[in-house]
UniProtKB/TrEMBL annotation:
GO molecular function, one term: ceramide glucosyltransferase activity
Gene3D superfamilies tied to this protein: Spore Coat Polysaccharide Biosynthesis Protein SpsA, Chain A
Source species of the chain: Methylocella tundrae
Lineage of the species this protein comes from: Bacteria, Pseudomonadati, Pseudomonadota, Alphaproteobacteria, Hyphomicrobiales
SUPFAM superfamilies: Nucleotide-diphospho-sugar transferases (SSF53448)
Keywords for this protein: Glycosyltransferase, Membrane, Transferase, Transmembrane, Transmembrane helix
Top EC class, one word: transferase
Protein name: Ceramide glucosyltransferase
Compartment(s) where it occurs, according to its Swiss-Prot or TrEMBL record: Membrane
Annotated membrane topology: Multi-pass membrane protein
PANTHER family: CERAMIDE GLUCOSYLTRANSFERASE
Transmembrane segments: 6-27, 278-300, 306-325
EC numbers: 2.4.1.80
Pathway: Sphingolipid metabolism; Lipid metabolism; sphingolipid metabolism
InterPro entries assigned: Ceramide_glucosylTrfase, Nucleotide-diphossugar_trans
Amino acid sequence: MTSIYAAAFFCLVLISLNILSIGIAMARARPPRRPLPAPEAAPGVSIVRPVCGLDNFCDETLGSSFSLDYPVYELIFCVARANDPVVPLVRRLIAANPAIPAKLIIGDEKVSQNPKLNNCVRGWDAAAHEWIILADANVLMPKDYVQRMLASFGPTTGLVCSMPLGSRPQNLWAELECAFLNSFEARWQYAGETLGGGFAQGKNMLWRRDVMEAGGGIRALAAEIAEDAASTKLVRRQGLIVNLVDSPFEQPLGFRGLRDVWMRQVRWARMRRKTFPLFYAPEIFAGSALLLLVAAYAAYAVGGSIAAALIAVSLAWYVPEALLARSVGWHFSWRMPFMFILRDLMLPVIYVDAWFVDNFVWRGNEMSVREEEPSVGKG
């Protein structure tokens, strides 16, 4: 009988934590009612955008860089190779917007095995302003993008970030990616930051130059396989915190393949396991798989209906998540509840995979999270 009480208590705790995290996200992720105005005496901001290849909606996401309602900013695009197919697009956008200070830097500096970090180094060095944003090429920037980043920078802040918000999915697997990015990953990141455990997310990062330089400069981010993990540690060593932007910025998805979604999630999981293993360990409780297993055991032990128990627990788990997506305007369709379930069936496999597999391929680059793997260009 004790085991049944323990199982019931386990289910109650997990459902309560799930609802708590959803409540936090509902409060934090509502889109602003109106665009934020630029602050008085707005500081100059440099926006560094590493580019590589042509992503879905690339013309729109990179083009949004030139439409910001902010008085003083510059754009620095960085690409590793002159023959990259994104180069003509960037040059065309720069030529079409002569009023916006912008440049394209070709050629990276290999400070690590992370190609994105290598691509950002020269852009950081070329930045003219004290406030610097590192923003991925597939981020869609609203007109008040800079204002919203600056608004989250407080007295104890070392770094402001925004996770990607999946939008405009055009097939089933893109909706699966929305199920991962939005009401799961973004939601738990908001909950973690609210409870004092904010982590950097490399999609959008607002730095004050002196914070980065006090931690050893941008090349110090080569200490970790992931630049966002290194950023988190650099900031925390200075007694500062990572803050998240209220309401995340969009990443339009378009079409996705199942393999694309899978590889992205296992890559992120392997890097989280490597860089923050103690925080990664409890991630197994974030999805519903263990909850449903324990609920089925409890129903079996008392001679009840396993199917009824699974349905009841699933409703308690997924209805609040659906309400979150609907209430804050994130993508939601009749297929999304099924994508929530599929995601949670994948999560235990991803979790176990991350403990045993070290290697992955990102944009054609073979990488490893093994400590004995030397970083390219280090030393």
